[in-house]
Each structure stands twice: as structure tokens, then as C-alpha cells.
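Subject: design request, 253 residues
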């Protein structure tokens, strides 16, 4: 019996060679400049030289986050947030600390695996798909708690936030902070109200796969696409009273 998982639809993935992996590490961690591979693209993956870039590095001794809206990175191992971050990663000597590194923008994501021994770049595949298999965008609240005593934006040319939760968990997030709020928006024709929310978000694109044996469809891959503050940037949206999902044509994004 074949146990190969079904391929995510609408997704293009390319394996990186050793030189490309080294280039990503050198740009992001050693020189602290924009990731050139995301700017130029490779092997059918388009580049995005004007787009912002973000970093999420999971290390054996903590996490490093970062943002690069222009030419240079601001990372959480910067002095102002170093107490909320893992120590700086020095690829020449301690890449063994790497569990996973994600460098991403709106159009593509680079993933380096454990020890940065392997890497991949992923983006949308432009081939047409039926509606039920098309990728969908989702947004998820980032860790933090309302009120300046818990979560606040720090100074600097590239915004960063220091956040905490009642559990005591703390983090440094590479964007300005917006407290979570929600309000009811009347629906057309007096048909109840939609819940509009604002906050600080991680945005993700989900890719579907269909099991050839059963026809079942499920999410098979997700690609990080950005971080946002303010109004919830994607669906779904729900009716306040019934909990029913609101049709896409009635949403405000």
C-alpha cells in the first residue's frame, strides 16, 4: 500500500543547494541585510525585491524574530529586546542550534531545517485549480495581553513589540502592537451582526490536498505570509448571535 501523502495543490516548492542555504544564513544573521534569495527568486519561484521580509528562527535555546521592511534587519537579539530573545546565531560556529528557520514575505517562504543542513523555498503555483482546492488566507492572533503593562511597541526605525501573557510567557514580536478589540457590525437587511476584530496578527496561506483513495480534502501545507497590526486582515467572519460563517461577498477584506 502506498503511504505517500497527497501533494498540496497550488504550491511550488524548490530545494535549495548548499550555496543558497549559506547565502540565506549570511544575509540574515551575519550581515543583517535583506535576504537576496527572496528578492531574486529561483527556478520558477518569483522574487519580490520591494516586499517586507520577516524572520522566525526556532533554536534549541529559544527564538529569534525579526523584520526587514527595507535594507537591513532588526532582530530580537538587538539590545533593546535581547532579554526576550535567544542569543545571536553565528552560522560559522553554532548552526547546530537551529531547529527551524523561516524567512518569509508575502509571496514566498524559505525554510531551513535542523542544523540548517537543508533548505526549501515555497510559493504559489499559478496553475488553475477548482475552487475547493484553491489556497486560502488565514490570520491568527499573536501572543500578548491587552494593556501597556503587558504588551507595548518599542521605539526604533523598525517597530518591535515586547509582549507578555498572564501565564508569564514573554516574547519579542517584529511589528507594532495593537491590543485585541472586537465590535458588532450590523449586517445588511437587519440580519444580525458580524464580529469585526482588531489586534496583532500572523498571516498564513493554507494549501489543500485531496486523498486519491477517499476524495477527502484537508490542509496539507501552510506558508507564512506576514505580520500585521490593526483590523483582522483575512476571514473567516462570523455572526455574533448564531456563530454562522458569513459569506465572503459580505466581508470587508
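Subject: RE: design request

Done. Sequence follows.
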Amino acid at each position: 500500500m502506498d503511504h505517500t501523502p497527497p501533494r498540496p495543490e497550488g504550491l511550488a516548492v524548490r530545494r535549495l543547494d548548499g550555496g543558497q542555504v549559506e547565502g540565506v544564513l549570511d544575509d540574515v544573521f551575519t550581515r543583517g541585510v535583506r535576504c537576496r534569495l527572496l528578492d531574486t527568486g529561483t527556478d520558477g519561484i518569483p522574487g519580490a525585491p520591494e516586499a517586507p521580509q520577516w524572520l522566525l528562527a526556532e533554536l534549541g535555546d529559544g527564538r529569534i524574530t525579526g523584520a526587514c521592511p527595507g535594507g537591513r534587519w532588526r532582530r530580537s537579539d538587538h539590545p533593546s529586546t535581547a532579554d526576550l530573545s535567544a542569543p545571536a546565531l553565528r552560522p560559522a560556529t553554532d548552526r547546530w542550534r537551529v531547529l527551524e528557520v523561516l524567512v518569509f514575505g508575502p509571496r514566498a517562504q524559505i525554510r531551513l531545517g535542523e542544523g540548517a543542513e537543508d533548505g526549501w523555498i515555497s510559493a504559489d503555483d499559478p496553475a488553475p485549480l477548482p475552487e475547493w482546492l484553491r489556497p486560502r488566507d488565514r490570520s491568527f492572533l499573536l501572543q500578548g495581553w491587552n494593556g501597556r503593562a503587558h504588551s507595548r511597541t518599542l521605539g526604533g526605525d523598525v517597530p518591535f513589540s515586547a509582549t507578555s501573557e498572564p501565564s508569564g510567557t514573554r516574547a519579542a514580536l517584529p511589528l507594532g502592537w495593537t491590543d485585541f478589540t472586537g465590535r458588532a457590525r450590523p449586517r445588511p437587511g437587519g440580519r444580525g451582526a458580524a464580529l469585526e476584530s482588531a489586534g496583532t496578527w500572523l498571516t498564513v496561506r493554507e494549501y489543500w490536498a485531496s486523498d486519491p483513495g477517499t476524495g477527502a480534502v484537508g490542509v496539507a501545507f501552510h506558508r507564512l505570509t506576514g505580520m500585521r497590526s490593526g483590523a483582522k486582515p483575512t476571514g473567516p467572519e462570523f455572526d455574533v448571535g448564531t456563530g454562522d460563517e458569513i459569506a465572503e461577498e459580505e466581508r470587508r477584506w
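The chain has a mean pLDDT of 91.
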